[in-house]
Amino acid sequence: MTVARITKSVVDRLLPGAVLWDTEVLGFGVRAGKAKHYLLRFRFQGRQTFKRIGTHGSPFTPETARKEARRLLGLIASGVNPSVKPTKGIVFLEQAERYLAARSRDAKPATLRQMQYHLRTLAAPLHPLTLVQIDRRRIAELLAQVELGSGPAQRNRFRANLSACWNWLVREGLLDVNVVAGTGTATENISRSRVLSEEELRKLWAALGSDGWSDIIRLLLFTAQRRDEIGALAWNEVDLARKMIVLPPARVKNKRQHELPLSHQALTILKRQSRRNDTDFLFGAKRGFLNWSDSKAALDKRVGIAEWRLHDLRRSAATGMAELGTQPHIIEAVLNHVSGHKAGVAGIYNRARYEGEMRAALQRWGDHLDHITGA
User: Out of 82-91, 109-118, 194-203, 312-321, which region has the weakest mean confidence (pLDDT)?
Assistant: First the structure.
């Protein structure tokens, strides 16, 4: 086996049939035949494999071929086989559905719902295209459209799910590279400590309508629960007789059943929801409310306040209850936090549910919301 640093003069002197391996980049070589071809030798999943880089002089020189060999080695290190050729006739929508079916076996319900919304709704412009028709430029244009319509946070989450899908396509051997990986992320610039002021709450309330989305926003404010806990609320989780919402462990972040007393205002909202035969969910068909980004974007245009996100409503409610004199451990119970007063040993032995105190705190907060919004 002949080994030397591959240079133009060395390649020009190679005789037909000769193979030369580079001393600078492992696996990079050149083979002389009727023409001289640069190649890369590597092992992938235990097998020795060769990838042809290109012909000497047209368009590759030793330096450009060596640079390409380094790029290919980077792909190999990330689990991509560069010798696999893309299949031209494979349509994106078919593969996106295959990916969602595969992820349905391990993803959490809320995560799966977000992936389904991103790949089935936001990625709709890609659906009729074949995989080889979708390049980085097309992805970047789509991400820009999503950011314009739904904001930087939605763009970033959509990009993350697209990238995960493309990584899966590469692992399936359908593509060589993840074209999403080279696109940029947006700067969100949203504070994690944002609390809506009373004036902002008034504007938000005035912009709400009589639809289910508006009632979700009202409930998020009245109950201080997480977005998906309310958006995917099922009828069997609503106990009207006890005036409570009962969320099972699988539906909450800390995996502990959460029993939440309801204020008169929250109970009224739940009672006015129409029960349909085709779904068990209060606010959506079959999987709960899904159209978060479009609904939020439309609401933002009507509200006209500084940038905010849905989780800020939970923080605003907790802050409001504190300002009304609610004790921290009661607010933690409302939020279903296992921290602070209920962390560690204290959380093991303190099994009090504080139902009465929680109900009183939420009612004070509900009355206060009515006062500041003029409801």
Answer: 82-91
- Mean pLDDT taken over the chain: 87
Q: What is the mean pLDDT of residues 108-120?
A: 90
The torsion region of residue 151 among left (phi > 0), alpha (psi -120 to 50) and beta comes to left
Classify domain 2-77 by CATH architecture: 2-Layer Sandwich (3.30)
Structure tokens at 246: 């009962």
Q: How many CB atoms lie within 10 A of CB 208?
A: 19
pLDDT in tens, 152-192: 888 899 999 999 999 999 888 888 889 998 888 887 665 56
Tokens of residue 96, six digits: 């996106």
**Eight-class DSSP state of 103:** H
Name, of 64-73, 112-121, 215-224, the range with top average pLDDT: 215-224
List beta partners, residue 244. 239, 261
Angle, helix 152-171 to helix 109-117, in steps of 10 degrees: 100
Give pLDDT, residue 77: 75
- If residue 313 lies in a helix (H) or strand (E), which one and from where to where? helix 311-323
Backbone angles phi, psi at 158, to 5 degrees: -65, -45
How buried is residue 100: exposed, middle or buried, by Cβ count under 10 Å (0-12/13-18/19+)? middle
Q: Is the pTM of this model over 0.70?
A: no
Q: Helix 212-223 and helix 198-207: axis angle, to 10°?
A: 150
- CATH 1.10.443.10 in the chain: give the residue spans: 198-373
Domain covering 198-373, topology: hpI Integrase; Chain A (1.10.443)
- Fold of the domain spanning 92-171: DNA polymerase; domain 1 (1.10.150)
Q: Are 18 and 33 in contact (CB under 8 A)?
A: no
Residue 354: Cβ within 10 Å count: 17
Phi, psi for 79 (deg, rounded to 5): 95, 15
User: Among all chains, which residue has been given the structure tokens 């032995």?
Assistant: 349
β-bridge partners, 239: 244
Residues facing residue 91 across a β-bridge: 130
d(CA 323, CA 365): 10
Phi, psi of 294, deg, nearest 5: -65, -40
Measured CA to CA, the distance from residue 241 to residue 224 in angstroms comes to: 21
Cα–Cα distance, 205 to 264 (Å, whole number): 17
pLDDT at 285: 67
